[in-house]
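Running this now, will post back.
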Amino acid sequence: MIVERLLRVGRNVAALEKAQAFYGEVLGFAAVGPAVEDPALARLLGVERLNILRMRLAAQEIELSECFPAGAAYPAGANANDLWFQHLALVTRDIAASHAKLQLHGVAAISQGGPVQLPAGAGGVIAYKFRDPEGHPLEFLQFPKSAGKPDGYDHSAISVSDVGASRAFYGALGLRLDARQINQGAEQDALDGLGNVAVDVLALAPPVASPHVELLCYRRPLGARLDYQPADLCADRLVFKTGEGGLSLRRDPDGHIVLLDGR
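Update: finished.
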């Protein structure tokens, strides 16, 4: 099956109202209508029911889902190289102001020492990784003015163990390799909150222009693996639009969840 574009990223939350407040007040997302139930998605995630709330930042959407019964909490002590890691990279025009707002709200950091200016070979962006109140990872990106990046979120990044296997999986869905590089050095260490990092970074673009998927394959340090369920808080979903009807769920070689939505 060939997908068309990335519709949204789905994220399970423990408390929908609290999550809405954080994503709205701190990150600038706006709710798209009220929370609703989605019986078809509940069946796929293996829960009795769930409430979903879609929120928009510029032209991009996320889908916050509160499951009943709730899945496992986000793992404590998780790192950026762990194989369940999936972050959402938000574009900001002023990362210093965005970082200051996070500090004002006591948001937990992943990056060390504040926003990090990455070398030109790593994209030349200024970046900062952090967590929402439930532990989900996020990132702010400030691009050079010449890049002309739109507002919203730029990509969702997932940590993977095998570049070839992941490329084959997403390639079969129609995503093409758009860029590839190796990030390492003191700046990447600070960004990830890890030591002696070397990570392959691959940008995979859907057929229709939309936020892309980024593969992060850590050569060092190696991350942990976790057997998690679709309703757990760490089980983010890449939701792709398809030309076929219905709703189906797949898992990539490392267990990341892909939702194919033809509704």
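Residues 86-220 form a domain with the 2,3-Dihydroxybiphenyl 1,2-Dioxygenase; domain 1 fold (CATH 3.10.180.10). More later if anyone needs it.
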